[in-house]
Amino acid sequence: ASSIPVPPPTSTPCPSGYITWYSSCYKLVSEPKSWEEAQQACVKEGGNLASVDMSYDQLQTPVSNLSAEKPPSTPAPGDGKCLPGWWPYGRYCYFTYNGKVGYSWPEARHICQEVNGGELASIHSRAEVEFIRNINYTKYHYVWIGLTRGDEWAWTDLTSLGFTNWAPGEPNEAFHDGDVGKENCVEMYHDGTWNDNNCVQKRGFVCRHRQY
User: Fold this and answer.
1) Which of 74, 88, 99, 176 is 20 to 30 A distant from 211 in Cα terms?
2) Handedness of CA 210, 59, 138, 161 (dihedral sign)
3) Number of domains within the chain
4) What predicted TM-score, i.e. pTM, was given to this entire model?
């Protein structure tokens, strides 16, 4: 994948306990709160919960991208911790990237592997589909998941392929004019269903790794 430029320094002053990023100030709070409580706490300090639009922010800056219209559902309890900006569910941590700049499936997998030995997400239940849909609400693209085909369909993290959620008529292994290969990678639509697609298409993606 192409390298991502380091943002320029900024002289914007921030209150004590905040960090400066471009022309904004961010504060990471580890105390557990509901979405509503967290937003109220931010408002009291003259701010709001962080919203992320830039591709560099979403890939490199550990802040949460929350929406007042659709906060994520409460995840199942785990046995460890997640990096800021990653969402816990069960014993795993999840991160969705869906900025304006998309990535091919191999590029997306490489980015996931750079963080705590992560992988493109494998999905094993309807509840997990809905959880990922809830944290993927900046919908510039569909998102790559960790399902790919060699001789047969398999998850990149080597977990078993039991649950599937193919869209009607998929996978169809289509080969369109101009394609450089068959549809050997899988994207998730906004409604949570899956489609096989050419791996060089530019998409968002979902990573996951074990809690630490």
Assistant:
1) 99
2) negative
3) 1
4) 0.63
